[in-house]
Design a protein that fits this description.
The chain is mainly alpha-helical and about 120 residues long. It has one domain (about 1-90). It has seven helices and no strands. The chain has helices at about 1-10, 15-25, 30-50, 50-65, 75-80, 85-90, 95-100.
Length: about 120
């Protein structure tokens, strides 16, 4: 898990992504738009990788907060930056649960005979 976050940090702080973050920080024109924009971007990046989303959202929130022409509540930006982790990380490509379910070896072949649940609906009536 630490490597996922570390890799996300390396990618998010790379020069091309840093330039992208600085350009994206210029998009919002109001405080409400800035908070919703950070949340949307964080959730979008979280579909790719949840570790990248953590760092990307935080850096985007910081870049928007540094703007002199826009007054935004830092607490709202910070909460919006974590929306990717809180809302959609389990649905993304780096989801551990989704990757585990996608492997054939992780699925049970059948229910064991010692199961307390009957196999037929007629046994419950």
């Amino acid at each position: 898990m630490a490597m996922v976050v570390l890799t996300g940090y390396v990618v998010a702080t790379s020069p091309p992504v840093a330039k992208l973050i600085n350009r994206l920080a210029l998009v919002p024109s109001t405080a409400r738009m800035a908070v919703s924009f950070v949340a949307m971007m964080s959730m979008s990046v979280s579909f790719l990788n949840w570790g990248l989303s953590l760092i990307f959202g935080g850096l985007l929130a910081r870049a928007i907060a540094r703007r002199k022409d826009l007054t935004v509540d830092y607490r709202a930006l910070g909460a919006a930056a974590f929306m990717g982790l809180g809302a959609v990380w389990a649905l993304g490509l780096s989801s551990s649960a989704a990757q585990l379910q996608a492997t054939a070896a992780s699925l049970a072949a059948s229910r064991p005979r010692s199961s307390p649940f009957p196999r037929e609906a007629s046994g419950t009536l």
